[in-house]
Specification:
Blueprint (H helix, E strand, L loop, with lengths): L2 H9 L9 E3 L8 E4 L5 E9 L6 H18 L3 E11 L5 H17 L3 E9 L4 E10 L15 E4 L5 H9 L5 H12 L3 H9 L5 E3 L4 H13 L2 E4 L10 H6 L5 H15 L4 E3 L5 H8 L7 E5 L4 H10 L5 E7 L4 E3 L1
Parallel strand pairs: 4-5, 9-13, 10-13
Antiparallel strand pairs: 1-2, 2-3, 3-6, 4-6, 7-11, 7-12, 8-11, 9-12
Helix pairs in contact: 2-3, 4-5, 6-11, 7-9
Length: 330
């Protein structure tokens, strides 16, 4: 469901209030958080989607990584997960087993365990997880935690959406798809740990609403702006070429329409004309198992870079948080 449609649906629902519900429906965040004790809160999220690659094992692993990403986006650790799935009656059982195995292996890599699940019959395969995590109640990441002057970091490159769309049309070089799969399989566990060490408050993960869609949620929640440097935005190899050829997903078009209506018409979205159209489009494109977007005070910039280096992973400094409540890409 696109961001505009989801907003309209949720607007008609009652926002439940409870003293221990630290993050719920009204916060529009990445996961729900419920306090158990002064030291422990439960993080709960669910996500699933149709196949994004042909290999059933990789599909299961990518779906699991994507599902667990919301726990990491809240600063949490994965504890256990339940499978959520729908499969056609005639889908060979060995394919279903491979999907479940991919998900289980990825959850195990995260330090968690698959504890059960639920399946239904569906014409199109769908798979994901309901994930339970834990976090300290005073160390939760939220979309509304941006502070003017802080530096913005992104933990994965953009481009999975356009690459997956091209692959479905047999228009993607296998090597390009392999790099995208490698990125989608990478957990945001290390990024979340580094962010915790750096004392991060404002964070989200980049998934279906695209970089600008999720950035817009942070801007609204924080009442602070975001300035992105186009030259510093990481992009997967081959993604720009595929974008130039127009391999956009349906999600990209919905995301762009929503952001241009809500931010563009209010003068709160400014993309410099010098930014190539293909790159600008990638900022709206839906991502699968994308990176964490988070901000840290300038004094903690070095600690973030060192934290990623120690873990053998990369991150990119892509901009800063501004006082003016708008999104600027230059």
């Amino acid at each position: 469901m696109g961001p505009g449609d989801l907003r309209d649906v949720l607007a008609g629902l009652k926002q439940e209030q409870h003293p221990d519900l630290l993050v719920g429906l009204g916060a529009s965040d990445d996961a729900a958080v419920y306090r158990i004790t002064d030291e422990v809160a439960v993080v709960e999220t669910v996500d699933f989607f149709p196949p994004i690659v042909d290999d059933p094992y990789l599909y299961g692993a990518i779906a699991a990584a994507n599902s667990m990403s919301d726990v990491y986006a809240m600063g949490g650790q994965v504890v256990f997960a339940l499978n959520v799935a729908g499969f056609p009656r005639d889908l060979p059982k060995e394919i279903i087993t491979a999907i479940f195995r991919g998900g289980a292996d990825k959850v195990r890599e995260a330090g968690g365990v698959i504890a059960g699940g639920h399946t239904v019959v569906d014409a199109e395969p769908k798979y994901g997880l309901c994930v339970t995590g834990r976090v300290h109640p005073s160390r939760i990441f939220i979309k509304g935690g941006l502070v003017a002057g802080e530096r913005l970091f992104l933990s994965k490159p953009l481009g999975t959406g356009v690459i997956a769309t091209a692959a479905k049309a047999d228009a993607c070089d296998p090597a390009v798809l392999d790099r995208a799969v490698e990125s989608m399989l990478r957990l945001n566990r290390a990024a979340s740990e580094v962010a915790q060490e750096a004392g991060v408050r404002g964070a989200t993960d980049i998934t279906g609403f695209g970089l600008l869609g999720h950035a817009a949620e942070m801007v609204e929640a924080s009442q602070a702006g975001i300035a992105l440097r186009a030259k510093d935005l990481p992009v997967l190899p081959g993604a720009l070429v595929l974008a130039e050829k127009g391999h956009w997903s349906g999600g990209m078009k919905r995301n762009r329409r929503h952001i241009e209506q809500t931010f563009g018409q209010g003068g709160r979205l400014a993309i410099d004309p010098s930014v190539p159209e293909a790159l600008a489009g990638l900022l709206f494109e839906a991502e699968t198992s994308g990176g964490l977007l988070f901000s840290v005070p300038p004094a903690r910039r070095g600690a973030v870079l060192e934290g990623f280096r120690r873990r053998g992973e990369r991150c990119w400094e892509i901009g800063e948080v501004t006082a003016e409540v708008k999104i600027v890409v230059s």
